[in-house]
Amino acid sequence: MPVVFLGHGSPMNAIEDNSFHRAWAELGARLPRPKAVLCVSAHWETQGVGVTAMERPRTIHDFRGFPQALFDVRYSAPGDPALAQRIAELLTVYRPVLDTSWGLDHGSWGVLIAMYPQADVPVVQLSLDMTKPASYHYEVGQALKPLRDEGVLILGSGNIVHNLRLFDWRTPQQLDWAVRFDATVKQRIAAAAHQDLIAFERLGDDATLAINSGEHYLPLLYVLGASDAGEPVSFINETVLSAISMTSLVVGGSDHAS
Q1: Least confident residue range of 80-84, 115-119, 210-214
Q2: Is 0.85 surpassed by the pTM of this model?
Q3: Other C-beta atoms within 10 Å of 50: how many?
Q4: CATH code matching the domain that covers 3-251, chosen among 3.40.830.10, 1.10.150.120, 3.40.50.10540, 3.40.30.10
Q5: 20 to 30 A Cα–Cα from 224, which one of 6, 67, 185, 256?
Q6: From start to end of the chain, where are the E strands?
């Protein structure tokens, strides 16, 4: 099974008929159909590692100031308690907690509603332990790698560049530093230079601006950790909007529907 990182951007991409939503839908159609999805979303930040383990995860509307139509969305994909237990076993050394209170935040359902609109693929979320360094998140991704051979799609949802404080809401004109950092990350991914991406602070001032709070970048490290050197990488949605990059990628696996 491939591993996927999606730049999710605005929550409105979940319901708008735009190029990002269409690309996610096309991706869902051409990837091998997973038995389940494990989503690492930028929007579940915790102390310690959490894994959703409920039968029916709720749809979380973790945003404000958007049209009512977005709040009306319910993504009714089932959970997968057995998969949650399997993930907990793989992550034993990280002492994960099986969670029954969270659900699916918009980092998950906002992209999955395009990929699997029938909500018929079970979904489990893994939280971001924000007390840990970048290397920790990459190592957790490595520990999750066996799930790929078990038919589970590991999906990271965030943004390579994400700085809302510098985002120009009047016009999505590209910012030079955002374009440069997006290109730098793509080049390092293509070269499998994962250590450069783990130690992103060494990539200079552009990295400081692009990863000002971290949570949107970290899901990428899980995807890279779960990948193998030499696997093919393909990019989609290679667009920078002001201070947000929508760049997304697929690593490895078959690129056709099954």
Answers
A1: 210-214
A2: yes
A3: 21
A4: 3.40.830.10
A5: 256
A6: 3-7, 36-46, 50-52, 97-99, 123-129, 152-158, 233-236, 240-241, 244-245, 248-251
